[in-house]
Amino acid sequence: MGARSYTSLLLVFTVLFLVTLSNVAEDNWIYYIYCVTDCQPRCTYRCSATSHKKPCMFFCLKCCAKCLCVPAGTYGNKQTCPCYNNWKTQEGRPKCP
To answer: How is the chain split among helix, strand and coil, in percent rounded to 5?
Structure first.
């Protein structure tokens, strides 16, 4: 294999890698925008009645980013967001507050 074809092959793989990387960054950016604009205020309200605000916010934001919804109110109503309701810990307890 000549130096010229090796360089061309390297260039093709580099371009493909950068395109893939930009698509991943774009997807993460969309989730980040959603989390800041929708999840933050919804989770702030959802966790407003608990005395454990920090862990509640951590898990609520994590669940919101995955499920793209947060149930209404400060407790219960999980049936309105099935993904949020069905995500469980290894022990089988609800992961989302």
So the answer is: 70, 0, 30
